């Protein structure tokens, strides 16, 4: 004997193809986008090593017309560290600060990404990489700009305060 099914289960049987689509928190979207951007940075730098002449230039102490120095490596580290830190900051910062810092850093990173196109050689490789970076940065800007706002009306807030139980000083 089978257990009786609720009335609604018979009327609305679950469909096999229906997928559940849950709303992703903005913080998770931002962290994922910054993580993807970091993977692009890493792989573009790695694949750049396959470009003819790159390894000999590095062995001679040059990177893209610049002499390798501690100052240059600090600049490179800073450029990579900022998006790396944005992964963590996108998850731990409060919404207002999170929104502002994502808007500022993503807006600054777009022209920085365009700098990779300087030099003129291997434009398809760098063009594709920079294009993907800019798409991710635009996604970050859009996600931060359209951050959902709380829609609690003052009347609802007041009603919820009235329904809160009164606490004694020992409970507070």
How would you summarize what this structure contains?
The chain has 172 residues and is mainly alpha-helical. 63% of the residues lie in helices and 2% in strands. A hairpin with a 2-residue loop joins strand 1 and strand 2.
What report would you give on this structure?
The protein is mainly α and 172 residues long. It has one domain (24-144). The protein is 63% helix and 2% strand. The chain has 7 helices and 2 strands, in the order αααββαααα. Strands 1-2 form a two-stranded antiparallel sheet. α4 runs antiparallel to α5 (95-114). The radius of gyration is 25 Å and the shape is elongated. It starts with 6 loop residues before the first helix and ends in a 10-residue tail after the last helix. The model has no long low-confidence stretch (mean pLDDT 83).
Give the strand tally.
2
Which ranges are low-confidence, i.e. pLDDT below 50, for 5 or more consecutive residues?
none
The pLDDT mean sits at 83
Q: Main sheet, how many strands, which sense, barrel?
A: 2 strands, antiparallel
Helix content: 55-70%
Order of helices and strands: HHHEEHHHH
Structural class: mainly alpha
Kindly give the count of domains: 1
Strand order of the largest sheet: 1-2
From the spread of the alpha carbons, the general shape counts as elongated
Radius of gyration: 25 Å
Helix run count: 7
Strand content: under 5%
Instruction: Give the end-to-end Cα distance, rounded to a whole number of Å.
Output: 54 Å
